[in-house]
Amino acid sequence: MSNWDPTLSLQAWRELLVDAGWAVPSWSRQCFGRDLPAWADQVVADEIRLIGAVGQPLGSGMSLAAPTIVEHGSDELRHLILRPTLTGEKTWCQLFSEPGAGSDLAGLSTSAVLDGDEWVINGQKVWNTSAHHADYGMLVARTSWDVPKHHGVSYFILPMHQPGIEVRGIKQMNRHASFNEVFLTDARIPANHLVGTLNDGWRVARATLAHERTFSTMRRPKFVESAGKQSRAVSEAEAEAEEHFKTYVWYPQRAGRVDLVIERAQQHGVAHDLVIRQEIAALISFQRTSEWTALRARAARALGRPPGPEGSLGKLAASQVARMAHRVHTLISGANGMLTTGDHPHDATIAEVLVSTPAQSIAGGTDEIQKSIIGEKILGLARESDPSLDLPYREVARRSQ
Ligand SMILES: Cc1cc2nc3c(=O)[nH]c(=O)nc-3n(C[C@H](O)[C@H](O)[C@H](O)COP(=O)(O)OP(=O)(O)OC[C@H]3O[C@@H](n4cnc5c(N)ncnc54)[C@H](O)[C@@H]3O)c2cc1C
């Protein structure tokens, strides 16, 4: 940490971190790490913060794309893509869902066809968070129509800034616009941007989804003042975080704002109402116990265990907390909770909670899909029946038209 120099630019500082292997020390040396145990990542991140320096960039590049590339990418791809992701130079979005393929993601129909040394992509994606400013997309596309659906999908890194890509924002019912439709018309991907092997993209996509369900909560980084010096890297990191959180500003409301319920009950004069007290106690107890489950999962990660089906338990618990919080806020605020002007409670935050919590049980796989995963992978129940599983996808697509 003697290399920390507050006058460096954010980019220059992160390049030093990456070159020294301290950005993600548990990764291998080929992946810009130091081959240290998984627990070292948090220890090093804490030390970096304590000296007032800046660590990893925020966003799905670090949380989803980079670990997927570390696990499944070729050495060439790791070398090419990890470095600008680790420095924050390149940002990412996830291009998985389609109008006809959400829960049944393997039923996707965006196609990728090899043309010389490039893949040509045609189709439509939807609900793609941050696609309006991302540099790269994690794309799953169909590369074979003659095999069952899970066996004909490949995983690519799509450069987003090119003529064949049109990104259209979607206005949500909470008035934010954090996700998009993405139209792909003869978009191009260099042949070496395939992650994993051809037609084995389902396995790679599952790795990304497992990282998405790792109980991680998105927190705004707190920067420590750097020994009285004006720090260029810190102010650039603050600006980076500011920009990043514009997209995610409603996510605390999506999670239910449990932190507000006691204050709201006191303000509204219902803190002594017996029914409301019971509901608040049930909500806070459930949230605390689900936090312990999250801590157990984090401890497993720190021991180097890969994310597994237990992520689905955390996702389900988060949905349940959001639903319970929605109910408690409604009990406390009554019909006023719906107001966004005039006599609105808590600067209309409660109204935003009420229209944002449904998203918690959809994003990253719906509650029903998590229950199926838990049933099959944890409880060992029989696999859900799907008559299309053994058919060549070309026949399935024709039948559903
Ligand atoms: C806030 C937010 C951010 C998102 N960000 C992204 C992103 O960045 N990139 C991306 O690609 N996608 C993103 N998504 C999309 C998300 O992954 C999908 O919405 C989700 O997978 C569900 O798919 P769907 O909307 O097509 O619903 P459907 O799959 O059509 O489901 C509709 C209903 O049917 C139920 N259902 C479906 N199949 C079954 C089954 N087999 N058994 C029981 N019930 C079933 C579902 O549970 C649901 O209730 C985001 C969504 C949200 C809400």
Structural class call reads: alpha+beta
Helix content: 40-55%
Tell me, rounded to a whole number, the average pLDDT.
92
Distance between the termini: 60 Å
Task: For the largest sheet, list the strands in their spatial order.
Answer: 1-4-5-8
Bound molecules: flavin-adenine dinucleotide
Oligomer: single chain
CATH topology of the domain at 250-365: Butyryl-CoA Dehydrogenase, subunit A, domain 3
- Shape field: globular
Number of helices: 13
- Total beta-strand segments: 8
Name the CATH class of the domain at 250-365.
Mainly Alpha
Largest sheet: 4 strands, mixed
- State the low-pLDDT regions, or none: none
Strand content: 5-15%
Radius of gyration from the alpha-carbon trace, in angstroms: 23 Å
Descriptive keywords:
401 residues; alpha+beta; Butyryl-Coa Dehydrogenase, subunit A, domain 1; 4-stranded mixed β-sheet; 4-stranded antiparallel β-sheet; 13 helices; 8 strands; 42% helix; globular; flavoprotein; oxidoreductase; flavin adenine dinucleotide binding
Describe the structure.
- The protein has 401 residues and is of the alpha+beta class.
- Among the domains are: 10-90 and 216-235, Butyryl-Coa Dehydrogenase, subunit A, domain 1, CATH 1.10.540; 250-365, Butyryl-CoA Dehydrogenase, subunit A, domain 3, CATH 1.20.140.
- It has helices spanning 10-20, 40-50, 60-72, 75-86, 201-212, 232-248, 251-254, 261-267, 274-302, 310-333, 349-356, 367-378, 393-399, and strands at 92-95, 111-115, 118-126, 136-142, 153-159, 165-169, 180-190, 194-195.
- Helix 10 (310-333) packs antiparallel against helix 12.
- The mean pLDDT is 92.
